[in-house]
Design brief:
mainly alpha; 2 domains; 7 helices; 45% helix
């Protein structure tokens, strides 16, 4: 079951924040309160609406994308009044209908992002070592060792899309990682 700490909730919260800040007049020009207040506001609104969303939508991933319901088929009649009232009183929506339309757009963004295929390892390349953050020559290293892929799949520890996840490390970062794992 999805919890507010899940990666899906984080994606939903990010999509909500992007839609929110794209509305004219939402961010004040003086910068006081700033990102902390905005993050608290977005968290509050997302926590209000998240539990009422269908489980298959909350658990949307690339692997189960065919099971995710289409946004235009969802009934959002059970959207909490507190969510709608907050959007209306803060000037984000004009009335309850426009609050629901705003939520539908957020859910469309969320579904696209949550169901997107994972990036190929070669496209995740960074310019800095992911451990020591130095800009030196890097090599990639599988986070799940290739020799364990069959076992990982058999035991269903990770989905197949996770098998080729890599970290870009320098020699020092790799050495540090091996030392740390040897100490454990």
């Amino acid at each position: 079951m999805s919890e507010p700490t899940s990666s899906q909730f984080s994606i939903f919260k990010d999509c909500f924040a992007k839609r929110l800040v794209s509305k004219p007049g939402i961010l004040d020009s003086d910068g006081e309160g700033g990102s902390s207040d905005l993050d608290d506001f977005v968290s509050y609104l997302c926590l209000e609406v998240w539990p009422g969303l269908p489980l298959k939508l909350r658990d949307a991933t690339h692997e189960n994308r065919t099971e995710v319901p289409a946004i235009d088929t969802l009934s959002l009649d059970n959207t909490p009044i507190s969510f709608i009232d907050t959007l209306t009183s803060c000037g984000i929506s004009e009335d309850s209908d426009s609050a629901i339309v705003f939520l539908e757009k957020v859910l469309e963004d969320y579904a696209v992002e949550a169901c997107a295929p994972p990036p190929m390892w070669s496209k995740t390349r960074t310019t800095e070592c992911e451990i020591c953050e130095r800009e030196v020559p890097l090599t990639y290293h599988h986070l799940i060792p290739r020799e364990t892929h069959a076992k990982v799949l058999k035991k269903k520890w990770h989905p197949e899309t996770m098998l080729n996840k890599v970290a870009w490390l320098c020699r020092y970062g790799l050495f540090t990682t091996r030392e740390d794992s040897a100490m454990v």
